[in-house]
Specification:
The chain is an alpha/beta fold. 43% of the residues lie in helices and 12% in strands. It is elongated, with a radius of gyration of 24 Å.
Length: 372
């Protein structure tokens, strides 16, 4: 079947259901509640049959039928599959085991499917992910804060989600790539119409090591409405949302509203009261819409990924403090740790044993590393 190539990462596929979802994906706008409701009640295949012969359709669907009908054609699924094959796009559907579970929080506004480019294995990394958003007109301050936050999060093996836009989004993606972490870009248009064009090379780099996603059917252009709807996916896919820099009318505020509706924690980085680029963040904090993020190192603790910082001066001995100072999230051999700490081997082993018992260090295949 035509749709096999876009499902090559999956051994089991109900192709009739997939084709029906592809048709619905082209008919309905993202987040269409009516489409989500009828597909949930009847399944995509039966819902499409009802749509083509709507006798007995309840009155609430009348307006929906009118807007859907203008887009439908009998070969709709085939044309979209051909476009997807041409641009090497692949498809994820809600019945796939690796479908991101957090998307179900969107209810009837959940995407009908997801088109993607990149490594299918990366979908498993949504279990620990953070969305970073902000102004397209990023200042040096915003860029620095975003890069520092990404460094902290990638050291925690966190996937970074953003919208692929100019400014803060692009900084978050590029910083993650530089740290060899996993980053995910969510497009407002289809993947064969990536936007903005200035980031085309960036999107290729992301697809090589991470994921570029869209719920938009191939051939679709980004529009204002689709940008707003795209933001609900940015909010839903992550454990929390961070705004590192945003102006008073920044589109990031829309992402914050979606995150709040979904019960996701929202954090904002404060900026100078004289900087228009930070006015949105400062307002979010003032109005209680976001928690104040004073230090990028605080976020893992706020989310429960780290315990409260240990007062090393009071809780640890001199040997343990010296070893903890040279440990990092990357494994180091015991010989390397001895050189860096300046301890005798027997002192080093005693300190590592104590840190291990305290849960502050762990031994891996090639050496020791810090837990925090």
């Amino acid at each position: 079947m035509k749709s096999k190539s876009i499902r090559r990462d999956f051994e089991h596929t109900n192709f009739e259901e997939v084709r029906a979802r592809i048709a619905w994906n082209a008919i309905a706008e993202p987040g269409d509640r009516m489409a989500g409701q009828i597909i949930r009640e009847h399944g995509a295949v039966e819902a499409l049959k009802i749509f083509r012969d709507p006798a007995g359709f309840s009155s609430e669907y009348v307006s929906a039928l009118e807007r859907w009908s203008s887009r439908y054609s009998s070969n709709l699924a085939d044309t979209r599959i051909d476009l997807a094959k041409k641009h090497d796009l692949k498809l994820l559907v809600p019945t796939d085991e690796i479908w991101p579970k957090r998307l179900s929080d969107l209810g009837e506004h959940s995407p009908l499917l997801i088109w993607y480019r990149g490594s299918v294995e990366k979908f498993e990394e949504f279990d620990k992910s953070i969305s970073i958003v902000g102004s397209r007109n990023a200042t040096h301050y915003g860029q620095r804060v975003t890069s520092d936050l990404v460094k902290t999060l990638t050291e925690e093996r966190v996937a970074i989600v953003s919208g692929g836009a100019l400014g803060i989004d692009a900084v978050a993606h590029r910083a993650t790539l530089a740290m060899r972490g996993t980053t995910v870009a969510i497009m407002a248009g289809s993947l064969d119409n990536p936007y903005p064009a200035a980031n085309l090379e960036l999107f290729e780099q992301i697809a090589y090591t991470g994921l570029v996603l869209s719920e938009m059917s191939p051939g679709s252009k980004p529009t204002r409405w689709r940008f707003l709807q795209r933001n609900r996916l940015i909010a839903a896919l992550s454990e929390a949302l961070v705004v590192t820099e945003a102006g008073w009318r920044s589109g990031s505020i829309n992402s914050v509203n979606h995150a709040s509706d979904l019960g996701r924690p929202v954090f904002a980085v404060p900026g100078p009261i004289t900087s228009p680029a930070s006015a949105g963040c400062n307002r979010l904090i003032r109005d209680g819409q976001a928690s104040l993020l004073v230090d990028v190192e605080d976020l893992p603790t706020e989310l429960g990924w780290r315990g409260t910082a240990v007062d090393t001066a009071e809780s640890l001995g001199a040997l343990e403090i010296r070893v903890l100072d040279v440990l990092s999230r990357r494994e180091a051999t015991i010989d390397s740790l001895q050189t860096q700490s300046g301890l005798a081997m027997h002192e080093l082993k005693i300190a590592l044993g104590s840190l291990s018992i305290l849960g502050l260090a762990t031994q891996g295949k090639t050496g020791w590393k810090s837990v925090n």
